[in-house]
Amino acid sequence: MNASPLSAASGHAVPLRVGVAGLGTVGVGVIEILRNQAALIAARAGRPIEVTAVSARDRSRDRGVDLAGLGWEDDAVALARRDDVDVVVELIGGAEGTALDLARAAFSGGKSFVTANKAMIAAHGPELAAAAEESGLALAFEAAVAGGIPILKALREGLAGNAVGRVYGILNGTCNYILTEMRTTGRDFSDVLAQAQALGYAEADPTFDVDGIDTAHKLAILAALAFGGRPDIDAIHVEGIRHVTIDDIRFAEELGFRIKLLGVARMTGQGLEQRVHPCMVPLSAPIAHVEGVFNAVVAEGDAVGGTMFQGRGAGRGPTASAVVADLIDIARGHAGPAFSVPALALGAPAAAPIDAHVGAFYIRLMVLDQPGVLADVARAFATEQVSLESLIQRGRSEVEAVPVVLTTHATSEAALRRALDTIAALPAVIEPPRMIRIENSL
Ligand SMILES: NC(=O)c1ccc[n+]([C@@H]2O[C@H](COP(=O)([O-])OP(=O)(O)OC[C@H]3O[C@@H](n4cnc5c(N)ncnc54)[C@H](O)[C@@H]3O)[C@@H](O)[C@H]2O)c1
Ligand SMILES: N[C@@H](CCO)C(=O)O
Ligand code: NA
Q1: Binding positions for L-homoserine (predicted)?
Q2: How far is CA 82 from its chain centroid?
Q3: I need a surface site. Which of 126, 297, 303, 387 has the fewest CB within 10 A?
C-alpha cells in the first residue's frame, strides 16, 4: 500500500514517490510536468509527487532532463523492489516482455502502477486489474486511450449512470495526421508517416498505427469500460489506412465526406460489434472536422445522449498530461477500479460478426472503359440486391484504366462482398475493387 498522505507525527504531507521506466517521448514528458507544475500538483493532490528513480536503456544519453539525484536501475523490473518507490510508471511499451514483468512485479511488491501501454492493457488488463484490486492497489491507464483526452475517466465516472449504446472515435493520432496531411498537401503516405514519427506520435513499430492495430487496442479498452466486458482484441474487425489513396480522398470530398480511421463499438441484437477501418464520414458530422494529431471520442448514453470529447491523442505533453492525472488520483487515494466494474466482474459479451454489419458503401473500381462494363457491374450488384446511390466515372480510355466510383444505399456487408467478388473477376476490372464503409449515422 502507498504511504498515507499525511504523516501522523509531523502533520507534513508525505510525498508520493514515483519510479519511471522508459525515458522516451512520454517518460521525459512526465518528469517535465511533475517538475514544472510541482506546486500546483502538490496543492491538488494534497501532497507532493516526486520522481525518485528511473530506468532506461542508456544511462549516458542526454534526454534534456536532469536525472541527477535520481536512483537508476538498468533492469526496469528492479523499480518494483525499491523502498523509495510507491508507484511504478511504465512507459516502455509492448504487450509482453519487460512491461508486463514490471506490472506484475509492481503489484506483488505492493506498488500501484500507471501505464500508457494500450497493447498490454488490451491483452492483460483484466489480469493486472485483478492483481491490483486484490491488494488494494491502483492500476491506471488514462494515457493509453486517446492520449490527453480524459475519456476513461469520463466513461468510468462522468457517464457512470448511463447504459452506453455506442462508443466510437478517431483513436490514432498518427493515422489522422497522415490522412489530414494527404488531403491538405497532396503528399504521399510514406512521406507523411516519416513526419509523424519525427513528431513522436507513432508507435515503435508504425505498422501498429497504419494497419489499425493501435486503434484496435484502444477500442478494446474503450469497449471494456463502456460495456463491462473484458477487452477482446480478437473480436475486432481491423483494417488500416494503407489502401486509402489520394483519389479516394478527393472522391470523398466530392461526395460530401471525409475519410477517417474510426474505431466503433456498438451493442446490436447480434452481440457487440467492434470494428476498426477507414470510414467515409459526412462533412456535416463534427468528427469529420477533427484533424491532424487530434483524436475524438463520441460516447452515447441512454440518459445523457451523445457526448463528444476532443483533444490531442499523441505526443509528449498530451500523453504525459494523462499519466500525471492518474498519479494525482493515486496521491489523493481515490483511483477507483481500473475498468468501470471490478476486474472479477468483467463479462464476455457475444461478438457480432462483421458480415452482419449493415451500412452504405463507397466502391472504387479501376476499369477499362469498354462497352458493357458498367452494365456487368450493375448486374453484379442487382443480383445481390445491392441498391446503388451514385456513380462517377472519370476519363475515357479503352487501354488505360479509369476510376469508376459508386456509392450504395444501406446493404448487408455479406451481400456487398459477394457482389465485389463477381466484379473483381470481370476481365475489364483490372485492380481489386476498393471498398470504404460510409457512416451516415454519426
Ligand atoms: N508517444 C505517444 O504519443 C504515446 C501516446 C500514448 C501512449 N503511448 C505509449 O507510451 C509508451 C511509450 O511510448 P513512447 O512514445 O514514449 O516510446 P519511446 O520509444 O519514445 O520510449 C520508450 C523508451 O523505453 C526505453 N526502453 C526500451 N526498453 C526498455 C527496457 N527494457 N527498460 C527500460 N527502458 C526501456 C527506450 O529506450 C525508450 O527510451 C508506449 O506504450 C506507447 O504505446 C505513446
Ligand atoms: N501511436 C499512437 C500514440 C498514442 O497512443 C497514435 O498515433 O495515436
Ligand atoms: Na486518455
Answers
A1: 203
A2: 32
A3: 303
